[in-house]
Design brief:
The protein contains ten helices and 15 strands. By secondary structure, the protein is of the alpha/beta class. The N terminus is likely disordered.
Length: 362
């Protein structure tokens, strides 16, 4: 297998795909099954990574965020539930070049599938190319690659993150200055959230002025830049944090140090909306320190990361449309498929909902 060319493998997959589609069409005609042609898996499209068996490598972007710590804890549980043999997770420690090395190391260990949370949407292509050359399918979690082959992206709609934050702050604040503490703009997540928030404010809330802090998912950077910005703009009325896992603590500490941390209802309260849905954000909502967060589904990321890598290893494919788990598979401009999982807005009204994953971890 290792000596065969990519072109030959693609020809084999196309031939197998035609055969399977023909068999499926015959089965549909004979049995008139309603499931045929659905937006669930569409059957085999050729050989997968080991016929659904073999070890799976799981690569994390970082472990300094409570969000990724929770995802890391979910991975072995979800792997077990899918009957998958997952190796111990690997932490790329916020280093895109290290992540490529991690992918290569996992491939050299003979994994038959990879679940990767990319740090850099462009840089990850080198690792994806390595996996494709070895015939190992990859599922991307949280971040979609700009290019390269993946079987599926498991991700929430990050444009909606920015829009939800904008709508919430816009309804709370009639006019004035709001800050968005941005993620890494080398990541599609940072770009999507930033651009969506900015565009929504401009369109729907023109009396708000957006000030921006590029913080690269780094807590120290967020703290120092927020401190500087508040010195020059003590009249800030709202803050949008694109990642509560890394920005919540430094933001609250910075506000407290300036005697600007007022609870909801107090005069001078700065309205704050976050992203992640970690327990610490829920506690801050209960205390009135922040107003809302968008719950990014750490549990579902682990669950469907394993679900789709198992399907890919079996050679199964999917097509755009609604799923059976309240999400929708969409085709990105790159041609990659993405399962956009739901991510609800959490406020004081629903913060105690037991269905939220942030209420199920300690």
């Amino acid at each position: 297998m290792a000596g065969r060319t990519v072109r030959n493998r693609r020809q084999d997959r196309r031939s197998s795909s035609r055969a399977v589609r023909a068999a499926a069409a015959a089965a549909c005609a004979a049995l008139v099954l309603a499931a045929c042609g659905s937006t669930k898996d569409t059957g085999s499209s050729g050989s997968g990574g080991g016929g659904g068996t073999g070890k799976v490598g799981v690569i994390l972007p970082l472990l300094t965020s409570p969000f990724w710590q929770s995802y890391n804890d979910y991975v072995p549980k979800m792997a077990k539930s899918q009957g998958m043999d997952a190796l111990k997770t690997v932490n790329s420690n916020s280093d895109p070049s290290q992540q490529i090395t991690d992918i290569n190391n996992q491939l050299n260990q003979g994994v038959k599938g990879l679940v990767v949370a990319p740090l850099d949407s462009a840089a990850i292509a080198a690792g994806l190319d390595q996996a494709e050359r070895k015939g190992v399918p990859v599922v991307a979690v949280d971040v979609a690659p700009d290019k390269g082959k993946v079987a599926m992206v498991v991700r929430a709609n990050n444009v909606a993150y920015g829009e939800k934050a904008c709508e919430y702050l816009g309804k709370q604040i009639p006019s004035g200055k709001v800050v968005q503490i941005m993620g890494d703009l080398a990541s599609v997540n940072g770009r999507d959230r930033s651009e969506a928030f900015r565009a929504c404010v401009k369109k729907n809330y023109p009396k708000l002025k957006v000030l921006e802090i590029p913080a690269k998912w780094e807590s120290d950077t967020a703290a120092s830049k927020l401190d500087t910005l508040l010195n020059a703009n003590p009249d800030i009325k709202g803050i949008y944090m694109q990642a509560g896992g890394v920005y919540l603590a430094p933001t609250l500490q910075t506000l407290k140090s300036k005697n600007m941390l007022k609870t909801v209802g107090q005069k001078g309260h700065i309205a704050i909306v976050s992203n992640d849905g970690i327990p610490q954000e829920f506690d801050a909502i209960r205390k009135g320190q922040i107003d809302a967060t968008v719950s990014q589904p750490a549990d579902a990321y682990a669950q469907y990361g394993m679900y789709y890598i198992k399907a890919a290893m079996l050679g199964k494919t999917f097509k755009p449309g609604p799923t059976d788990h309240d999400s929708e598979i969409v085709k990105l401009p790159s041609g990659i498929l993405e399962d956009q999982l739901p991510a609800p807005l959490v406020t004081k009204d629903n913060v105690d909902d037991p269905k939220l994953w942030g209420n199920t971890v300690k």
